[in-house]
Amino acid sequence: MSRDRPTTDPRLLPPDWSPRPAPPRRLRLLVLAMIPLSLWYFGWLLQPGRVGVPVLFGILVAAELFNFAQATGFWWTVTRGDRRPAAPSAGGAAARGAGGGGAGVAARDADTDAPTFPGAPPLVDVLIPTYDEPLAVLEPTVRAALAMRGARLVVSVLDDGCRPEVEAMAERLGARYVAREESAGAKAGNINSALLSTGSPFVAVLDCDHVPRPDFLERTLEPMVDEGVAFVQTPQYYANSRRGGIAAAAWAQQALFFGAISRGKDADGAMFCCGTNVLFRRTALESVGGFPTDSITEDFALSVKMHERDWESRYLPEVLAVGLGPEDMASYVGQQRRWARGCLGAIGRVLRARLPLRKRVHYLLSSAYFLSGWALLAYMSFPLIRIFTGAQPIAAASADQFVLHFAPYFCTALAMVVVAGRGTYTFAGFALAAATFWVQILASLAALTRRAGRFVVTPKQGAGARQPFAAAPTLLAIVALLVGSAWGLIHHRSPSTLNNVAFALLHVTVLASGARWALMRDGGREEEPEADAAPEPHPKSTPAPVPGRASELWWSYDHQSSEAQRGQRDVGR
Amino acid sequence: MSACTIAPASTLVRVWRTSVALPRSAGASLRTSRAAVREQALVAGGQILSGVGNLLYAAVMARMLAPTAFAELAAFLALYLLIAVPSLSLAAGGALDPAAARRRRGRVLGASIPVSLGLAVLAVVLAPSLGLSVPSALALATTPTLVALIELDRGRLYGERAYGWVTGSLVAEPIVRLAAGVTLAASLGVAGGAIGVVAGGIAGLAVARGGGGKARAPGRPGTRAVPFADLSGIKNSPTEGRGPRAAPYGPQESKRNGGAGLADRGGPAGRLAALTFLFLAVVQCQDIVFANATLSGVEAAQFAAISTLGGAAVFATATIPFVLMPRAKAGETGALGVALGTAALLGGGAALVTAIAAEPILTLAYGGGRFDAVASFLPAYMLAMALLGVARVLAADAVARGAKEVPWVALGAGALQLALLFAIGDSAEGVGLSTLVAAAALTGALAIDHARGAARVPPRRFAAIRVQASDVGSGGVGTLPPPAEPLGAESDQTPINADAPRHDAAKRDRDRRRLLTALILVGMMAVAIILRLLASRSLWLDEATSWYETQLPFHRMLEVLRDTDVHPPGYFAVLWATVRGFGDGELALRLPSIVAATALVPMLYVAGKAMYDRATGLVAASFAVVAPIVVWYSQEARMYAQLMLLAVIAVWALYQALETGRARYWLAYGLAGAALAWTQYFAFLPMATFEAAIAIVAWQQKRAGRPVARLVIGGVLATLLIAALVAPLVPFAHHQFAVNQAAGKGFDAPSQVGGVTENQVNLYAALTNGIWAVFGYHSNATMLNLSALWPLLILLALMLLGRGRSRATLLLLAGALVPTAMLTALALNQPFLFEVRYNLTAVPFLLLLGARAVTTWPHTGRGRVAVATAAVAALGVGLADQEWNGTNPRSYDFEGALREVDARSGPKDVLMYMPHDLNNLVAYYPPGLKTRRLGPRMPAADVPRVFLLESFFEDRANDAATRKALVKLRGERELVKRMRFSQVEVWEFR
Predict the structure, then answer these.
(1) Which residues in chain A are closer than 8 Å to B800, comparing Cβ atoms?
(2) Can you tell me the distance from the alpha carbon of B593 to that of B643, in angstroms, rounded to the nearest whole number?
């Protein structure tokens, strides 16, 4: 690659998001408002006189209470985000498991006052598992990993695809190439296998599309001074979200999670590992027998195990690695299916785990989120049932009564999402989540019947084709809602029918907004941004400077010259 | 010579050249235009003659046949047109590729004859559903073959520029139609008329078939396929400079189509043209089919009458696109202007003539009085047809240049029209309105598409095009070649400087944009004025009060206002002066409102452009054109239209002041704010919001460490200016309030409720107010239905997720919502204040916010155009229902009632009315008899007739008093007639 040639890889551009904390006072005020508003709504809804058709009413109440529980969990989580101390206490935690991972007693950096490891920089194994991703995706990650500062590195490319070109690339760049004869256990098995052949006290795991920042290890090693910390998780930022389309919608969901939610979980020590952009303490990994290979969300299951053994986790709210989100509907659906299946399958494990209540609640909230599809299915069904049969869940209530009680609750809940997510959660993200309701339903059925899930690598590049089958159930739901609406309009043009048609059209719009990318050849992506042009600052999207790092350029090192730096990589800077 | 030095000599030519990016001399352009004018004039003349002949034919038939039979013939004609007009796509294809037109005759015959045979077989089955008799249906069956052949040959003639033969063919058709039709109809009735139509077509075909003919089909001995460029005359007259132009769909599109433009590729062009003209034909014709199928016999005949006249108007412009196409294909620019001008002249002229003399024209065409009921609507329908004519020209130009989206734009218009037909097409007016809205949307979309195409021209293309022009000038081909060496070449006519500064091209681009924007705004204002004049209604109570007050001397008017009214005197001062200048007719009384509501259109553009961008401004302006509530209050002799205009000026000036800190904006804000206060007291609510906004912005700036002194000084001075200007109003307002409260008047006057809410403060009433503010006033049943759509507000809330916020948005939101909240809080104590017209300042803010949503939420340009068109169409539907449905509870037909009483009464008769506040109305529309308020005493027995008029039925006291009087009158007299008008009832006793 020529040094002067501009790149179009969005991962090499600075991120346009920073997980800044939401204003805590505003959040608390909203939560305070939510208490009476929730009572106002549910007090009205749960009156005996409201029962229309009992079964439907029961389903409605169940769906509403599920959503309320999720919402309450969200409010509780996001208002805890400011409770985590700014810096970890050096050596404050007692050693868990097999010891401190080789690090000695912490010292403090003279310039930044951050805790550091005394003596030589620590040894870190950087593991980059890969299977079939193209070199164009993998190579920048390996180059950037080799250029990381603050530790003595051994970068290993764990190629389950056994591809000679990957081996050649690793050799050319100066990374270790590791290939297994059998690819048992998928990603978890791949990492476990690599753990056997490495020995550094710290292990960083990077998905092959996640390009780390040069200071990734400097920043993530800081919390590791506390010997009780098992892993330090950082956000997964989707660089391709700036191209719009499905990646942007998926990122909107991620941004909420890696913003307010992760901060809140971290405040209760309940942040779980997300599989990439994470630094582990080897002793912690070994204490739980490595990554569990019996789960398709191995990171989630691993976290439960570690927390059971009193290891601590940390969340570092800084974008230290930049990756790629799903670029087509099939990729997104595959990813969601894996997450849903894994997390729902872990509910039983979480319930049985020996965890403090708060951590257990955090895990349950995250797992149970994937039941939301059932609630949406119920909401979608009500207007159709009303149109076709006349049956409805609520009785003896006029529309304005319902709106009077529901609207303040609903609007304030939305405002909570807006404030907590600092405006990053978009309608597109919501619509995409809604359009995959059926994935959650299928996943929960699979979890209920204990059907084994299969680990599927999320493709890092779009398929470049229309994928209607990836959204077929959503499209069917849209057709059903439209047919129901048309039938209703033809047969009863009364206000009540119109009201239900409006509800149906609401769902149609949301579902269609989420499923439209399946019908687009390029997943709704816009043209590649020019990497050579200086990104124009956008008043709304320019990330606020992270304290102490404002003047640091994202690309402060020359990623093209890592060859020259290879000889220095063990020294650190 | 550099590109800069070839700048046109005159400003006019400069504007023209920059607007179309012409790389040639003004003289050449004018010569091209003159040639295009001659061609258009010749063919349009023939077409007009043809149209006159057809009109004559229809008129004769309307007189000869019974209404239902004429309706059948009109349906036949519509179906004939429905088949004929899509066949114009063949003409379009021929105009683009005459050689192909010759080649395809066999294929066309092969395709159309089976269709004709199939239609003939199905005639028995289809006839009843089409509203035809079997013989007529059989005659119709010949049409596909006939018109296909006619248009194929005419298309060839257009392409070969054999305009004399085209004209001959056009004229021959109606002559034979009239002669044969009249003769046959006399003996065979409708079927004879239909056969006459077919016979005319055969005559037209015969002439067209014999025309041209220098070129023959390829492959035959001694013949050659004549390329367009040879026939266009371009090669023979290089000095005319018929070089390629900076076409809106320029080199990029040509390159996409194979690098040589559509000229060499008849196939895609033909398909595009076929689809486009097919969908345009649907827009043109489906209304008459719909009307014939769904309306009653009389209504269908009424619509057939205006449709025939409208069809004649659009018929007059039918050939214009085809005369344009050859030149458009060659990239000539002047031709489009000529074609647009001709279409606008013919269509607009027809609309204007019918606007001036609708009834005489209908009488002339169909006999006296038969179709007078739709006379008032005829101009609107003619306007629709004029717009369709313009749209066809724009579509033809776009198709000739390879724009692929045009058929779908036309299809969208057809779908919109169909939806409207189902929604409001329950009367002749409703059907016509559907077409008007669809035609306006279609024309607007095509114009925007054209503008977008023009805007896509990259700056460097200007130089590139000059090279091509020079090639042509030195004997090159006339078609648009690919820009092989775009830059740096020298030319004998228009030398190129490769280093021509980019800012020159950018400036031209800006100039062109400005010109386009100005044209669009002027067009919008023209439509706005037409709509505001079209949608007229009787004065209502408050307007009559305005009239009464402005009849007084100025000082006396102020006294009356101070002692009896509840509004500040600003608006009344303007109205007083207007009445002095223009009299006190309805139009004069409403003139200030019409002017203000029309000025709102460009003002919203200015505000939208300043606060967001040009697109937002244009969309906001288009919303203002059709926004029902804006149109409604533009027709009311009250202060609300001015209120909206001043509110936009105030928010725009404030925003500019906050952004730039310039004194002139602070001054404008101060003046607009004071004017608002002098116009309506409730304007204090948005003004208080704006003042709070200034304070908040200053506080934020201070907190952010930015300099704040200039902002504070500007804000304080503007506030002081407002205070100083409003100070004289304070004692006036205080006196008004005290007097009215003491007298129990003013606030207790009948409220224009007109809805289902009855001014109660509840959610449903809030929802209703919101619907009124956006979609206008409708019947209670419609309001119930619209209110039932409230779940869509959930969608709106969800769609707001992730939207950015800007100072402009926050300012507009605050300006709309804070006064609403404050007014609602006031209304908890005084429910009558819960009324949308007291909060009308929010309406333009909502329009601006809506425009912003439309221009930012869709991710593609096409999406934006589609959503904007849909939004305008939705507002248009609301407007149509509000103005013409007849069930609007806010529409009071006092004029109709009083004129009826006037017609039925004698000099000794008495009119009693209830409520008493109608005194000014009764005085304004003098019934020519004694009037008096309804009281306990009934007229004496010697009064021959007593009329009792009641309105504001929702007022129970009024209603009770009226019922009581009716009982009394029934005891004493005989009820002759009970007359119902919109929101008014009259009983006649003798």
Answers:
(1) 414, 427
(2) 10
Whether chain A has a CB inside 8 Å of the CB on B821: the answer is no
Q: Quote the tokens at residue A389.
A: 């049969």
Put simply, whether B860 touches A (Cβ < 8 Å) is: no
Instruction: Using the structure block, give the residue that is written with the tokens 């042009």.
Output: A533
Residues of chain B neighbouring A493 (CB-CB closer than 8 A): 785
Helix (H) or strand (E) holding B74: helix B67-96
A244·B859 Cβ contact <8 A: yes
> Whole-angstrom Cα distance, residue A548 to residue A552?
9
Mutate to test the interface with A, among B794, B810, B813, B859 (most CBs of A within 10 A): B794
Q: Chain B partners of A411 at a C-beta cutoff of 8 Å?
A: 797
Q: Chain A to chain B, count of Cβ pairs less than 8 Å apart?
A: 77
Which residue type occupies B33? S
In B807-899 the beta strands, taken as DSSP E runs, fall at none
Map residue B850 onto helix, strand or coil: helix
Neighbour tally for A388: CB within 10 Å: 14
Interior/surface letters A176-187, b for 16+ CB within 10 angstroms, e for the rest: bbbbeeebebbb
Distance CA B737, CA B780 (A): 33
pLDDT computed for residue B503 by the predictor? 64
| pLDDT tens digits, B26-67 | 455 556 667 778 888 888 888 878 877 877 888 888 877 777
Residues of A numbered 474-493 whose beta carbons fall under 8 angstroms of chain B's beta carbons: which are they?
493
Q: Is the pLDDT of residue B660 over 70?
A: yes
Coil vs helix vs strand at B198: helix
- Interface ipTM: 0.83
Strand positions, DSSP E, B791-914: 910-914
Tell me, yes or no, if B799 comes closer than 8 A to chain A by beta carbon: yes
| pLDDT tens column, B110-126 | 888 888 888 887 777 77
B312 phi and psi, to 5 degrees?
-65, -40
Measure CA A186 to chain center. Answer: 20
On whether the CB atoms of residues A11 and A320 are closer than 8 A, the answer is: no
**From B767, B788, B802, residue closest to A502, measured CB to CB:** B788
The token duo for A423 is 């405006």
CB atoms within 10 A of CB A31: 17
Q: Sheet containing A321-323: which strands, arranged edge to edge?
A: A211-212, A321-323, A237-238
CA–CA distances in Å: residue B89 to residues B269, B395, B407: 10, 12, 12
Q: Classify residue A519 by its DSSP letter.
A: G
- Dihedral pair phi/psi, residue B886, rounded to 5°: 90, -5
How many whole angstroms separate alpha carbon A121 and alpha carbon A108? 13
Contact A510 B795 (CB under 8 A): yes
- Candidates B785, B792, B804; nearest CB to A506: B792
Q: A107 in contact with B at a CB cutoff of 8 Å?
A: no
Q: What is the DSSP letter of A289?
A: T
pTM: 0.64
Terminal Cα distance for chain B, rounded: 92
| Whether A441 contacts A373, CB under 8 Å | yes
* C-alpha distance from B786 to closest chain A C-alpha (Å): 8
Q: Does B703 touch chain A (CB under 8 A)?
A: no
* Contact of B271 with B86, CB cutoff 8 Å: no
What is residue B689's predicted lDDT score, i.e. its pLDDT?
95
B940 touches chain A (CB under 8 A): no
How confident is residue A365, by pLDDT bands cut at 50, 70 and 90?
A: very high
Scanning every residue of chain B, which has its alpha carbon at the shortest distance from the alpha carbon of A505? B792
Residue with tokens 């599309």: A209
Q: At residue A453, does pLDDT exceed 70?
A: no
CA distances from B504 to A476, B9, B508 (A): 55, 16, 6
Q: Which residues pair with B985 in a beta bridge?
A: B950, B980
Find the residue in A nearest to B767 (Cα). Answer: A400
